[in-house]
Amino acid sequence: MKILIVDDEFNSCELLAGKIRSMGFEEIEEVLCAASGESALEVLLKAKCEILITDICMSPMDGLELVCRAREKNPKIACVLLSAYDEFSYAQRGIQLGIQDYWLKPYREEQVRDTIWQLVREYRSNRQRSKFVLDALVNEAIFSGDKEMKDIFPELSSLPGEARAVLWRGIGGQEPELPGRWTYYVQGKNLLFLFPAGSQEKDAALLGQILEGTGKRCGVSLPGSRVAELYRQAGCALAAAWVNPGNGAVFYQEFDQAGLQSSVADMVRRAVALPGEEIMEELRRRQKEMEPFPFSWFIHRLREGLLQELMEMGGKRGNVSPNRQDQGWEPVLRKALEAVARAKREQMEKGRREPIQWVKEYIREHYGEELDMTVIANKLDISYQYFSRLFHAQTGSTFSEYILNIRMKEACRLLLQGELVSVVAKRVGYQHPHNFARAFKKMYGVSPNAFRGE
Predict the structure, then answer these.
(1) Sheet containing 51-55: order of strands
(2) CA 116, CA 109: separation in Å to the nearest integer?
(3) Which of 88, 182, 331, 413 has its CA 20 to 30 A from that of 244?
């Protein structure tokens, strides 16, 4: 906070300023002096002061008029009046203006300390309360998705239109030194920093200064005005930051997320079934073909997908998180692939056979019974979702498609042996012959009787 002292006796002004500085309140950044009301207004135009201490008897502008003019510019400024005269009219007018205190010269140092301490406490409390309210507004803007910068920060003339968002995650240890009034905590763990957008080169230079010595990475959005979109873009850039070695700011770039997400899902399925080195080779080829930022995003989402598979397999994550010793994406992806392969081996050892091979044999033996994928996944001690993806990756069919093929092949064999349609239906798991006949015709284009040549 800043304090402005105004007195046409400039020596008295500097003496009071020195006393306040010597009190050692850490919230007080600067104590400024002015010798007239006019010069005080010029100071207030350049510096945002939270406290104004002014003598009353000055000319041509007295202290009471200065308080009125200062309150027009900043209604929240705290004001203290100084006077050598104990006149009730001054005190009465001060009360009407809502001043915080009235000091008679010569003022006592204890009185100055008590008043300044009270104003510092109020400032601290108001700042924390305002911070809490703004944090809540920013959170609401992010999750509602329809708020513009101007809707939340109307008082910040420095952010009139487009801004960039910078996001750090998991705040702890040494935090970046940022201008406090534009810094917000999102859900208590993400530090969001908003600043007026310039060119990428200019913004990168600013962030380089902020990041120096913090050992943190951050994600940076495109210039824009919608808070939710800025947050999403900054989060996307931050998520990809670990892919490239070193610390620093990663700037978001536009790319086709929907198309890449489909490729990620396909690679996750194959990564479970194929050797890890085969996946790594394919990723190295992709790196040569793709732009750096989309590739970083692809790797990040692939790792997330692998860790989800690992969790559903019941495997242990261990040390699969990126850290400062990892140079680029390869060691981190290799950790994730090795963890998945290890979980797969543990499953095989537990079941003493490859899971899907066991399922194929189980289906051949029980195709005439009701087969539930959830029950079979439980038998293998793996999740329903993981079993579904693993089965499709290794057979090229869904669980239900595979069972249908087995049943219809057996139905063909039985029909050619002359079995009745009703008997065949029950043998291959259908309680009602007409349901079997409909499924048979859908697959082969003819009815069961036509298939036998009847």
Answers:
(1) 30-34, 2-6, 51-55, 78-83, 101-104
(2) 11
(3) 182
273 by Cβ neighbours in 10 Å (0-12 / 13-18 / 19+) ranks as middle
DSSP labels for 260-271? HHHHHHHHHHHH
Nearest to 130 by CA among 71, 183, 203, 178: 183
Name the token pair of 235. Answer: 């989060």
CATH superfamily entry for domain 2-123: Response regulator (3.40.50.2300)
- Whole-number Å distance between alpha carbons of 64 and 283: 72
Q: What is the DSSP string of 182-194?
A: GEEEETTTEEEEE
Domain range summary for the chain, segments of one domain joined by +:
2-123, 149-251, 271-349, 355-451
8 Å CB contact between 5 and 32: yes
Phi-psi bin for 399: left (phi > 0), alpha (psi -120 to 50), beta?
A: alpha
Residue 218, H or E segment: strand 218-220
- CATH code of 149-251, in short, is 3.30.70
Residue by residue, pLDDT tens for the chain (454 residues) are 889 999 888 888 888 888 888 888 878 888 999 989 899 999 888 888 889 998 888 888 888 888 888 888 888 888 988 877 766 566 667 666 778 888 888 878 888 888 888 888 887 776 665 556 556 667 777 777 777 777 766 554 455 567 788 887 655 545 566 655 566 667 656 667 777 677 777 777 777 776 665 667 788 888 888 888 888 888 888 887 777 666 577 888 888 888 888 888 888 878 877 788 888 898 899 888 888 888 888 888 888 888 887 776 665 555 555 555 445 788 888 888 888 888 777 766 655 456 777 888 888 888 888 888 888 887 777 777 778 877 887 888 888 889 998 898 888 888 888 888 889 999 988 888 898 999 888 888 888 888 876 5
Q: Residue 272: how many CA atoms within 13 Å on its side-chain side? A: 32
Q: What is the DSSP letter of 221?
A: P
- Write out the DSSP string of 362-394: HHHHHTTS---HHHHHHHHTS-HHHHHHHHHHH
Separation CA 214–CA 171 (nearest Å): 11
What token pair was written down for 170?
A: 């998991």
Specify the pTM: 0.50
